[in-house]
Hints:
Layout: E1 3-8, H1 13-25, E2 29-35, E3 55-59, H2 65-75, E4 79-82, H3 89-94, H4 96-118, E5 126-132, H5 156-175, E6 179-184, E7 186-188, H6 197-206, E8 211-214, E9 220-225, H7 226-239, E10 245-248, E11 253-255, H8 256-271, E12 282-285, H9 300-306, H10 314-326, H11 329-336, H12 339-348
Parallel strand pairs: 1-2, 1-4, 2-3, 4-5, 5-6, 6-10, 7-9, 8-12
Antiparallel strand pairs: 9-11
Helix pairs in contact: 1-7, 2-4, 4-5, 6-8, 8-10
Bound molecules: nicotinamide-adenine-dinucleotide (NAD) and 2'deoxy-thymidine-5'-diphospho-alpha-D-glucose.
2'deoxy-thymidine-5'-diphospho-alpha-D-glucose binds next to helix 6 and strand 8.
Domain NAD(P)-binding: 6-321
Organism: Chitinophaga qingshengii
Enzyme class: lyase
Amino acid sequence: xxxxxxxxxxxxxxxxxxxRLFVTKYPDYxxxxxxxxxxxxxxxxxxxxxxLPNYIFEKGDITxxxxxxxxxxxxxxxxxxxxxAESHVDRSIMDPLAFIRTNVMGTAVLLNxxxxxxxxxxxxxxxxxxxxxxxYGSLGAEGFFHETTAYDPRSPYSASKASSDHxxxxxxxxxxxxxxxxNCSNNYGSHHFPEKLIPLAIHNIKNNKPVxxxxxxxxxxDWLYVNDHARAIDTIFHKGRIGETYNxxxxxxxxxxxxxQLLCRIMDKKLxxxxxxxAQLITFVKDRAGHDLRYAIDASKxxxxxxxxxxxxxEEGLEKTVDWYLSNEEWLQHVTSGNYQNYYQEQYQxx
Length: 351
Ligand code: NAD
Ligand code: DAU
C-alpha cells in the first residue's frame, strides 16, 4: 500500500532511527522528514539513507503555520509521526519558553493543519504523537506508570510534553482527528546527542574528563534501546487503536550511579584501561532542580495487545552503543564543536 508519511524531528536522535526504519522497511511509503535542524538536528544521522528514492528532507519549523500548511498541500500526507521537540530537561530549566513554543505551539500547529487538510475524509489517516513517560511525574521506590496514571509533570520540559498530549487528545475528541499517543521511557543508543547522560559520560570518559553525576546518583531511570523504541513506533503506527495511549519501556530500571559504574567498566574494557580507571572520573555535582526521583514504565498493554517486547539486554545494548561512539569519532567531534562548548560551560561550570 502506498502512503505519504510526514515524520517530524527525523534528524534528531530517535527520529533518525524511525526514519531509517520506515524508509528501508517500507519502500512503497514516501517518507518526508521535516526538521528545523536546531542544535540537536543533524543530517549526518541519516547519511546512509539520504539517497533512497522514497526519502525526502524538508527543512522547516513546526511552529510556522504557513509553511506547514504548504507542506500538507504539497504532499497530501495520510500519516504524521510527530517527534520534533525540544527534548532536554536541563535546557528547559534554562529556557522554558523555547519548550512551550516548539512542544506546545508546534504540536498545536501540526494538529490544526492536519485537521484542516483531513476534515472531509479522515479515513486511513493517523496523527501519531511520540511522547514521554515524564508526563506522569515522579515515582517513589515502588510502582509503575500505567496508561491510566494521572499526569503530574514537574519540569518545564515535561509540562510542555503533557500539554501537547492534552492537545492531541482534545483534537481527537473534539474534531475526531484520528490520533494515538505513546509515552516512552529513557532511550539510549547511537546518534544520541552528548548533552544526555549516557553519551555525555561516554564522551567525557574517553577524553579523561570528569563525569558529572547529579546529587548522589540515586535517581532511577528505565532504559530502552532506541531501535526497540523505533520498532514499537512502527508497531503502534500500523496496529494501534485510534484514541489510545501506549506506554513503551524496557522493564529495565537503573540507578544513575550504578549505570555509570557499569559504563565505566565497559569503557575500561573497550579502551584497554586497567579496571577502575574510568570510575575515578565520577564526580558528584549539584543536583538538577526539581529532579524526578524515579521513572518506571508498565509496558504490558503494548505487549499484550500488539505483541511488542524489547529485543536487547541492557549490557548488550550499552556495549553496542559504546562501540558506535568509539568508531564514530568524527560525528562526535562535529556535534561537540561550536555551541556545545558554550552549553557545557553554562550547565556544568558552577555545579
Ligand atoms: P532530539 O532533541 O534528539 O531531536 C529533536 C529533533 O527535533 C531535532 O532534530 C531538532 O532539530 C528537531 N526540532 C526541534 N525543534 C523543532 C522545530 N521547532 N521544528 C522542527 N524541528 C524541530 O530528541 P529525541 O531525544 O530524539 O526525542 C524525540 C522525541 O521523542 C521528542 O518528542 C521527545 O520528547 C520524545 N522522547 C524522547 C525520549 C528520549 O529518551 N530521548 C524518550 C521518550 C520520548
Ligand atoms: O524519560 C524519558 C525522557 O528521558 C525523555 O523524555 C527526555 O527527552 C530525555 O532527555 C530523558 O530525560 P532525562 O532527564 O531522564 O535524561 P538525561 O539523560 O538528561 O538524564 C538521565 C538521568 O541522569 C537523570 O536522572 C539526570 C541524570 N544526569 C544527567 C546528566 C545530563 C546526571 O546525573 N548528570 C548529567 O550530566
